[in-house]
Amino acid sequence: MDRRLRVAAGSAWAFILLMGIVSMFSDMTHESANSILGAFLSLAGASATTIGFVSGLGMCLGYALRLFSGWLADRTHQYWTICIVGYILDLIFVPLLALVPDNGWVLACSFVIMERVGKALKKPSKDTLMSFAAKQAGAGKSFGIQEFLDQMGAFLGPIILYAILLWQDSGSLIQDYRVCFAVLAIPAVVTILLLFYARNRFPNPENFEPETKETAPFRLNRTFIIYIIGISVFAAGFLDFPLITIHVLNNGLMSSDELPLLYALAMGVDAVAAILCGYLYDRLGIATLIIPTAIAAPFVYLIFGMTSFPALIAGVVLWGVGMGAQESILKSAVTSIVPKKNRSTGFGIFETSFGICWFLGSWLAGWLYDNDLTLMIVFCLVTQLASIPFYLGSARLQRKAASA
Which residues, 6 or more positions from 202, have their beta carbon under 8 angstroms from its beta carbon? Predict the structure, then answer.
């Protein structure tokens, strides 16, 4: 019996690592694009308010549609098919940004939104496939390691773009950005090939997690509801990176060709924070979220309130801590709370609420940035810290349920 368990755990870890490598090349594609996206949209003619709206709308669709795709995955059990189709849509629109003409910000924004739609389709199925193996290997460690590999791609990609920008230097920054988007077709193709290999190697990841005796349909219990409220409040105040890059350019804190390095820093911190938070989650549960939230919250003041290079670097580091916690602990919590047969639906509910609040918060923050920077800083800081009491309440209920 012990030998069978060891073999099962070894196979689960192999699957987790393989999917982590898939995520690494995927993030090398779209997170690299994200490092220059704000500046690209601005050069293409979009205002800060428009960029905040599009970033938020894309994030909203990228999360809100997961309610449907999560339900569809649970209903059909076609996790791999939905995941692969979503990945293809997620990745194809990044290289297509290379075709956007001058003043083509409307077309560019539509590509950004379609990329998020693809992400919405793939995520519940992908996270559910991961959660089956995570139950065998430990939810916090599994999602933490997966996020670490994921963010290694997000770290290396912007550095590659920085090298391309230094090498290209055509005299037209928007043209240089187009070359960057075209090059990102390479990791996009590698991602799809690895994904097909993963499906062939592990056609039935659901076998990693034993079936439970629970027959009643999943209901929104108090732990899950309070948890969702907490992470949704946090999302409303956690800015998307394009608005940060616009601020950096507007204040001359870095040159435009150095922006990928700034994003690489954030992703490197994200990777380390994710794996640390993942291990902490396996010990402390949802309460772990309190620590990175409190640490990350001041990023908005450091970046937007101080307007100096050292403060910018410190703020980006804290932003990376907050991102790392989102990607590891938030998924781990859903895996722990929601039963196996309803997990894609659970991920869809959680991510829909998260995305809608991120959309509304990003849109409002973009408008406030154009009109009242001080009020934007206060809004973002207060909403992030306001999530902590909900984490405390959800953690208390989680401990109570575990001891019952």
Answer: 11, 14, 15, 18
